[in-house]
Design a protein that fits this description.
CATH class: Mainly Alpha
Order of helices and strands: HHHHHHHHHHHHH
Distance between the termini: 30 Å
Radius of gyration: 20 Å
Helix content: over 70%
Oligomer: single chain
CATH superfamily: ABC transporter involved in vitamin B12 uptake, BtuC
Shape: globular
Length: 322
């Protein structure tokens, strides 16, 4: 037991160290050359650092952690390792909410968009959970296929209304995650991820029990409906805050919890901090690589995650199907 405890402490330290190194690189990699010493001698570079680099890096860390925790919660509640915001129609519902906020409230504020997005996301999540509970063929790969089909339907509806209102181009920014435009005053919504991360850790055991089924949870004295509702609200809040702030980012909530589970086991309370840090590390690394490949231009992180995530997702499916 002591050896296992030391092993997990070592993993935490290594993960935290890797995250801090990537945070440091993210601070000082960009079109404008900024060195640490310049922060004390050059006011213009200090302003760029505080207005652009710091918000961007914090957004990456919080988004990676938030999506990973959201994916973990969805996988527990649906009892399926392949369910996540990108395979349950959640991202598409968030974008639909933003679209209707723009249509119904011209000049909608960030808060308006987020409230609409959260309402649509929560409704879609409840509908998805209702559908999978009534599916008899509960194959590990069939459920996410249903979710992808559900998401494509939502996407088609959104495209129709965007076309009817002549705002198709405006919706493109929600379709692809991109941190290049994150600046001070336009990213603070991602701070709402912090209480969800805390709740994920606090209720890890309850989410696990709820994931074993309604009757099992009730036999242990757990309010099944309350836990499922809390989980879906948490996921909706995370996804809405991220899509409103930086756009849709696929696969993170799917691949990170699966990789952590394969490497470090299913002790959720112990692996949850690793899951959050792994999500942050993944986004930081992809964002830094995207800045360097075609420097001084950037490849949006949605493209980087889409390519890498698709490959890893295929690997996970093949491994778990054995």
């Amino acid at each position: 037991m002591a050896r296992t405890g030391f092993k997990h402490i070592g993993i935490y330290i290594v993960s935290l160290g890797a995250a801090l190194v990537l945070v440091w690189l993210s601070f000082f990699i960009g079109v404008k050359d900024i060195r640490f010493a310049d922060l004390w001698s050059d006011g213009d570079k200090l302003s760029v650092f505080l207005i652009s680099r710091v918000p961007r890096t914090l957004s990456l860390v919080l988004t990676g952690a938030g999506l990973s925790i959201a994916g973990f919660i969805m996988q527990q509640l649906s009892q399926n390792r392949f369910v996540a915001p990108s395979t349950a129609g959640t991202l598409q519902a968030a974008k639909m909410g933003i679209l209707f906020s723009v249509i119904l409230i011209p000049g909608a504020t960030l808060l308006n968009k987020m409230l609409f997005s959260m309402a649509f996301t929560l409704s879609a999540s409840i509908l998805f959970m209702f559908m999978i509970r009534h599916i008899r063929f509960r194959s590990a790969t069939f459920i996410p296929l249903v979710g992808i089909l559900f998401g494509n339907i939502l996407e088609a509806i959104s495209t129709f209304f965007a076309y009817k209102n002549n705002i198709v181009q405006n919706t493109q920014q929600w379709l692809l995650g991109d941190f290049s435009s994150v600046i001070q005053g336009q990213y603070e919504a991602v701070y709402l991820i912090l209480p969800v991360v805390f709740l994920g850790y606090l209720y890890a055991d309850r989410f696990t029990i709820a994931g074993m089924g309604e009757s099992f949870a009730k036999n242990l004295g757990l309010s099944y409906g309350a836990i499922v509702g809390l989980g879906l609200i948490s996921v909706s809040l995370v996804v809405s805050a991220i899509v409103v702030s930086v756009g849709a980012i696929p696969f993170v909530g799917l691949i990170v919890p699966n990789i952590v589970s394969m490497l470090f086991g299913d002790n959720l309370r112990r692996t949850l901090p690793i899951t959050a840090m792994a999500g942050a590390i993944l986004l930081l690394a992809c964002d830094i690589i995207g800045r360097l490949i075609v420097f001084p231009y950037e490849i949006p992180i949605g493209v980087m995650i889409g390519m890498l995530g698709g490959i890893i997702f295929l690997f996970i499916i093949l491994r778990r199907s054995k």
